[in-house]
Amino acid sequence: MNVYTYSASSWLDWTDATHFTVNQSNAKGDFGDRNYNVVADPENMPDDAGLWCPFDQTDGNIKCGDCRVCLEPDGPDVYIELETKTSGPGTPEE
User: Fold this and answer.
1) In a domain, 72, yes or no
2) Which of 28, 36, 51, 59 would give a disulfide with 23, using CB separation of 3.0 to 4.6 Å?
């Protein structure tokens, strides 16, 4: 089974986390297999920074698990857009 997590818990010792992929979601330490970053909009993503999350980019048409970026320990950094709940996956219907 492939397992991954997102963590901002920079105070934890992640060195024993060898059976799953850790996506670091803050810049307060040096842990995890990659950075998982939230930006206000795609224009805020640095040009050489990694890739836009396919789930986020396609409004949920590409599902987590179909895309394996967060599962693979040697994958690139991942970016998503800050949720405003005005659009995108998970937005309440009017």
Assistant:
1) yes
2) 36
